[in-house]
Amino acid sequence: AVVGVMTSPEISGSGYVLFHHIMGGAEGIPGSWAYVEGGMGALSDCIARSATEYGAQIRCSTEVKKILLVKGEARGVQLVDGTELRAKQIITNTPMHTTFEKFLDKEDLPQEFNRRVEGLDYKSPVCKINVALDHLPNFTSQPTAHNVAGPHHQATIHLGSETSDQIHQ
């Protein structure tokens, strides 16, 4: 229940991650995962094509200095070179600290909101790797004979925590 978060399954709210993994699915198979054909860059390209078809302008390698506000609403950006780009809406994919602490002045945001942004913790103990093996792993806790797949081979394998008590530590 703790994939991608630095918390124990015994902490309130941590069950969401497990719920997300279980409720997800691909091609009608609950709990399964899929990969984007052409890699994640293909997904970005698809989103960019769709956005530009609806009038969005995308600028790459263009550094933003600040978000421009009009009556408290984001209505554009000022680039490092001084150019101002106005828009009905802006979209940022920078971390919240960058968006709200670098691109905006603290005085433009509610004090409680600033406090919550400052308290955000981006640390995570997760490292995901996909590997190709020449044979199935044979675990001492669930041995299988003759390289035959068992039920435990048909899911994500999490190493390093054998019990939920160990995850909680």
TrEMBL record:
InterPro entries: Amino_oxidase, FAD/NAD-bd_sf. It comes from the Eukaryota. It holds the Pfam family Amino_oxidase. Gene3D superfamilies: FAD/NAD(P)-binding domain. GO terms for cellular component: mitochondrial matrix. One of its GO terms (molecular function) is oxidoreductase activity. Residues 32-135 form the Amine oxidase domain. It is found in: Mitochondrion matrix. Its main location: mitochondrion. Interacts with COX5B; this interaction may contribute to localize PYROXD2 to the inner face of the inner mitochondrial membrane. Probable oxidoreductase that may play a role as regulator of mitochondrial function. Belongs to the carotenoid/retinoid oxidoreductase family. This is Pyridine nucleotide-disulfide oxidoreductase domain-containing protein 2. It comes from Vannella robusta.
